Each structure stands twice: as C-alpha cells, then as structure tokens.
C-alpha cells in the first residue's frame, strides 16, 4: 500500500519523516543565520513539503533568562531543501506570554 497517510509519496518513495524534517529545518537555518537553534516548536506536513517554526538563540547572555531569542518560520520542499525562511518574533528568553 502506498498512501501519504502511511508516509509515502504518490511515486512510492518514502516521504521524509517528521524527525528528519525537524533536523533539516534546524541545520539549514543554523547555516544561513549563523546561530544555534534552540528548539523546533512547530512542524506541519503539507502537499509541497514541510513548514517549521524554529527557536534560535540570537544573543547569549548571563543569566540565560536575559538571552535574546527569535522564532523563524522555515519552509522545506518534499526532499528537505530549504525554500524560504523569515524571522517572525524576537523576545527575551525569560519573557512570559511571548504572543
């Protein structure tokens, strides 16, 4: 059986797993922005590939609650190539209610 619900594309080749997509989003974003990813906070599969939100430490400070964080929205194609990214938020790590 080959269906997208079972992790296969229409061509029968394995679809990139969520774990692989999260790793690719983090690694490729880190290479582009030159900063260390902290966490993937959101990941969605779509017809064209994957969309992820990745938290990045922008400026490290002591104590770490004073560090400046940013959220980037990352889009990958079906093969895991980064197609687009943009910074969507910037905040202090210790800030509550980031919305």
Which short descriptors sum up this protein?
1 helix, alpha+beta, SHC Adaptor Protein, disordered N terminus, elongated, 4-stranded antiparallel β-sheet, 99 residues
Descriptive report:
β1 (37-45) and β2 form a beta hairpin. By secondary structure, the chain is of the alpha+beta class. The protein has one helix spanning 18-33, and strands at 37-45, 49-59, 68-77, 82-92. The chain has one domain (13-92): SHC Adaptor Protein. The chain has a four-stranded antiparallel β-sheet with strand order 1-2-3-4. It is built from one helix and four strands, in the order αββββ.
Uncertain stretches of 5 or more adjacent residues = 1-6
Number of domains: 1
CATH topology, by name, is SHC Adaptor Protein
Average pLDDT for all residues: 86
Percent of residues in helical segments? 10-25%
Structural class: alpha+beta
Summed up, the helix count is: 1
Quick overview of this protein structure:
This protein has 99 residues and is of the alpha+beta class. Helices cover 16% and strands 41% of the residues. Mean pLDDT is 86; it is low at 1-6.
Ordered list of secondary-structure elements with their pairings:
Elements: H1 18-33, E1 37-45, E2 49-59, E3 68-77, E4 82-92
């Amino acid at each position: 059986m080959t269906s997208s619900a079972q992790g296969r594309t229409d061509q029968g080749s394995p679809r990139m797993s969520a774990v692989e997509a999260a790793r690719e989003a983090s690694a490729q974003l880190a290479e582009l922005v030159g900063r260390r990813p902290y966490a993937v906070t959101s990941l969605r599969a779509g017809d064209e590939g994957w969309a992820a939100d990745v938290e990045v430490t922008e400026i490290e400070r002591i104590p770490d609650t004073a560090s400046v964080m940013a959220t980037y929205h990352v889009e990958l194609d079906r093969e895991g190539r980064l197609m687009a990214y943009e910074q969507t938020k910037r905040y202090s790590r210790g800030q509550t209610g980031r919305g």
